[in-house]
Amino acid sequence: MNYGYPLSLAVVTALYTASGKLGLGLAFSSSSVTAIWAPTGIALAALVLGGYRLWPAIAIGALLTNVDTGIPAGTVLGITCGNTLEALAGAYLLCGVAGFRPDLQRLRDVLYLIVFGAAVSTTVSATIGVTSLLLGDAITSEHVASVWRTWWLGDMGGDLIVTPALLVAATHWPFRRAPGRIPEAALLAAAIAGATVFVFTRHTGVTYVIFPFLTWAALRFWQPGATIASLEIAAIAVTFTAHGKGPFAMNGPDDRLLLAQTFVAVAGMTSLVLAVLTSQRQQAARAERKIAETLQRGLLPRSVPNIPGWEIATFYEAAGTAEVAVGGDFFDFFPTEAGWILVLGDVTGKGVEAATMTALVRHGARVASQVEEGPSAILARLDQALREQPTLSPCSALCARLGVNEMVVSSAGHPHPLILRPDGAIHQLDGGGPLLGAWVHGDWPERTVPLGRDETVVFFTDGVTDLVGEHERFGDERLRDLLAAHSRLAPAQLLAELDSALREFQAGTRNDDTAAVALRPSPRRRPRI
User: Fold this and answer.
1) Which of 132, 154, 325, 465 is most buried when burial is the number of CB atoms within 10 A of its CB?
2) b vs e for 420-432, b when ≥16 Cβ sit within 10 Å of the residue's Cβ?
3) Which residues make up the CATH 1.10.1760 domain(s) of the chain?
């Protein structure tokens, strides 16, 4: 036998009845009408999460809640029908009509809950319940309007305060997506309790004191934080207001509870909307970063090509935090009739836009190399392509054609390459032209660089020297010292030492991509005869 359904019915019935008895303890204008009605929120959340089949639990809970209130049996049945139909109508409007998602990840779902759940469906119970009270002589006709208003607003408060908390608790567990953590949550809960007690133990209107804490909850804990904070504030506010304390205590019993409930509901919905917008923005940023990383890694060569006469190693590390969008560092190798071409560059910008421009530059270099032999001419073609873009997209780049024990190099605003001699001496390849895509009629002179045996050329992007440590950047001097100390190592070992040094130096995570390429001439093998 499957006990899941009966157990669900029992749990919902118990929660509805217990909260209903507690709510009726706050009733003043009628023994069956209260300004705070949490069972409405429980009923709507139960049907949204568990389906329409849980309606008997709502009916039984409503019956048990009102059966001993001293009103006629017919009136109790009318109230029971109204409460049950209200929950069914709200669930149908949300799930059957609006396409509501209970995780409240979208702003429209919050608006649907406010309109269909809180404003529209609650008129069903208020209308049927007040009519039942009138027919049972529990109220007089001159009180119909005020009792209907109290009933409607009380049910609305339940849907706006209790329902979101239950929906989020069921759909967001275990609450790991938001940036806030348990120690901060405990501090926030204590701060909210202190601020709310402060506000509702004074008759002066200082309710605005609570809003910074609701904002804190929304920004750091998203939907779970906003809904739980609202529930905590509601419990304290209602308790103090019911005992005649706080800024709303100068009004009548029902009116002051209505004001307290309305304040908490409005504040809670404001916080929830802020939480939804914050989580949507953060999730969109993460998705964009993932797309950019995928695009950029797809643009990098899968492996280092085997170029005769050259020993080559590469190194690449993407920016390391979700808060910092991936940058546009890249490198590529491809063969031409005049020899192998190396392109290394850094596109301005972050995220998908940078990755898109990286694709343009990389593939543009391959196309240009089919009609241009020299690195300078290839950079000129890339410059023209970038300047034809609708937005300014400058890019630093370095292009080299690999020959026999030499290379022809042309630079466009890129960090100067370093030549490592076997004795540890370092020679910097100065010169070059402006950034690509930035100025008209730019010039990128070429330089032929002969290389002796055991001499290594290191190309790198500015992410290497700009890496931030505890108190300063990694810097050019530290890079030179590191390379000089390991100048006799093979390119792969040299870059491994660089990677290790960068990881040891960095404070936190990298805020920019880092890329490097090391090349060394290798003896050509003579073909066998």
Assistant:
1) 154
2) beeeeeeeebeeb
3) 1-173
Residue ranges, CATH 3.60.40.10, the chain: 301-521
Tokens of 247: 């800024």
pTM of the model: 0.68
516 touches 464 (CB < 8 A)? yes
Angstrom distances, CA of residue 99 to CA of 95, 96, 104, 113, 160: 5, 6, 12, 11, 18
pLDDT greater at residue 431 or residue 96: 96
H helices within 306-438, ranges in order?
351-369, 375-387
Taking the alpha carbons at both ends of the chain, their separation in whole angstroms is: 84
Write the CB contacts of 423 (distance below 8 Å, at least 6 apart in sequence).
Answer: 487
Spatial distance between the Cα atoms of 441 and 380, rounded to a whole number of angstroms = 9
Percent of the chain clearing pLDDT 70 (strictly above): 90
CATH class of residue range 1-173: mainly alpha
Q: What single-letter amino acid sits at 151?
A: W
Rounded CA-CA distance 241/378 in Å is 76
Q: How many CB atoms lie within 10 A of CB 373?
A: 16
Is pLDDT at 296 greater than 70 in this prediction? no
